[in-house]
Specification:
Strand content: 5-15%
Radius of gyration: 28 Å
Strand order of the largest sheet: 2-1-3-4-5
Distance between the termini: 66 Å
CATH architecture of the largest domain: 3-Layer(aba) Sandwich
Largest sheet: 5 strands, parallel
Helix content: 40-55%
Number of helices: 19
Length: about 450
């Protein structure tokens, strides 16, 4: 039997609703928002009937806190307040429906039955989404490997909350897609998703883009303009490549996150903003902090939850899944039936994909467009893929110290590890146990590191 929670401070109102519904549902009552919160913490409900005017915490405050904590139970507002403004505010706060006291009993039963069915459909959709995550799909992102499933599961858990999220990963790994999917699965999904690429905007423009400006704030400011914080009101603001943001703007973003208020350039009053912030960067922020280029206090404010997307070379077992999906999409777009030949697939597996999933998709699109038949051969792939110029087997002759020229610490570290481990393995004729013993690692730890870096023993 479905369970309904009735939250109302008036005993007579609770009694009337219980009598109308108890034949078809199990009923739990609460006289205050605090008691309702305790009840929600102890068991799950299929529907909540919620009064607005209650002593202490009112119904709207309870509803907002329920949604902010990730609660998705449908809520039917049952109130004596019969104003359009109150109804709109309740629906904007996450209520599923609104009914005014003095209602007909049959109308209440109909509304309740409809919302319970709606909740059942939502639960079924959630179950199907969890199954897709387990099978290696998260919205438009694919990956059945253990490392990608962990990414999807973390994103799935954090999406229904209002927590600030920091997404880490190299360029081309899909940080923007993950941010969009987290927004789409959140209570803010029907509100705007506003993205700002902090690396693409000049330093003198990023502040006005984020916070807006008043007319006459600077030369050329002919009229007032809202910034991204305001445009994302009630929704999600995605700060892409936040590691490239200048220190002055970092300080203002920190103040906005802490106070939930912003001030337009040239303005004299604060504006309250209600946004969820998701940020992303390919940079090592710990190294940026050590170098004095990124604020430590902002870093800790952004990384309430951190999701680290691995490079494609660290989960090459997902290549067949990604290739099949991309070829199906691209074949449909270009009116071609496209499949990879065995030698082409082998080239794809050997290549290191420094541009990650984005580079893979672009390489496949080029091959689909240029191939003469349905089958894509190795010759149809870009030259660097055919020649294995980005292979995980390590640098070519004369490139042993190539990591020293890298500006990005994580990329330099990765290249060093590849060079070092490949050399040690060659010294021991690719005997993993002997190499592990020499460098002071357990055999299993070295094997995991080789998989992470995509290092494979050369074929004879």
């Amino acid at each position: 039997m479905r369970t309904i929670l009735i939250v109302d401070d008036e005993p007579a109102a609770r009694y009337g609703m219980r009598r109308a519904l108890e034949g078809s549902y199990e009923i739990v009552e609460a006289a205050t928002a605090s008691a309702a919160r305790d009840a929600v913490g102890k068991q799950s409900f299929d529907l909540i009937l919620l009064d607005l005017i209650m002593p202490g915490e009112d119904g709207l405050a309870f509803l907002r806190s329920l949604r902010a904590s990730g609660g998705t139970t449908p809520v039917l507002i049952v109130s004596a307040l019969d104003t359009a403004r109150t109804a709109v505010e309740a629906l904007q706060s996450g209520a599923a429906d609104y009914i005014v006291k003095g209602f007909d009993i049959e109308e209440l039963r109909t509304r309740v039955a409809n919302l319970v069915r709606l909740g059942e459909l939502g639960a079924e959709n959630e179950r199907l989404r969890r199954e897709l995550v387990a099978e290696g799909q998260f919205g438009r992102m694919l990956g059945a490997s253990a490392v990608m499933r962990r990414v999807f599961e973390m994103a799935e858990r954090v999406a229904p909350t209002d927590a600030t999220v920091l997404i880490l990963g190299e360029s081309g790994t899909g940080k923007d897609l993950l941010a969009q999917e987290i927004h789409a699965r959140s209570p803010r999904a029907e509100k705007p998703f506003v993205a700002v690429n902090c690396a693409a905007l000049p330093e003198n423009l990023i502040e006005s883009e984020l916070f807006g400006y008043e007319r006459g704030a600077f030369t050329g400011a002919a009229q007032q303009r809202k910034g991204k914080f305001e445009l994302a009101s009630k929704g999600t603001l995605f700060l892409d490549e936040i590691g490239d943001m200048n220190p002055m703007t970092q300080a203002k973003v920190l103040r906005a996150l802490e106070s939930r208020k912003i001030e337009r350039l040239g303005g004299s009053h604060s504006i309250e903003v209600d946004v969820r912030v998701i940020s992303a960067t390919h940079r090592d922020l710990a190294a940026e902090i050590a170098a004095g280029r990124f604020r430590e206090d902002l870093y800790y404010r952004l990384r309430v939850v951190t999701v680290d997307i691995p490079a494609l070379r660290a989960h090459k077992e997902d290549l067949p899944l990604l290739v099949a999906s991309f070829l199906a999409q691209l074949g449909s777009r270009h009116n071609r039936r496209a499949v990879l030949s065995r030698d082409a697939m082998e080239s794809v597996r050997r290549y290191d994909w420094p541009g990650n999933v984005r580079e893979l998709r672009n390489a496949l699109e080029r091959a689909v467009v240029l191939s003469k038949g349905d089958e894509i051969g190795a010759a149809d792939l870009p030259e660097e893929v055919r020649d294995n110029a980005g292979a995980a087997g390590g640098p070519r002759d004369g490139e042993g110290d190539s990591f020293l020229g890298e500006a990005d610490f994580r990329e330099a570290k990765r290249k060093f590890e590849i060079t070092y481990l490949k050399r040690k393995l060659e010294e021991h004729r690719w005997n993993v146990s002997r190499a592990a013993a020499e460098i002071g690692l357990h055999r299993q730890s070295l094997q995991e590191k080789l998989r992470e870096l995509g290092i494979q023993r050369p074929r004879k």
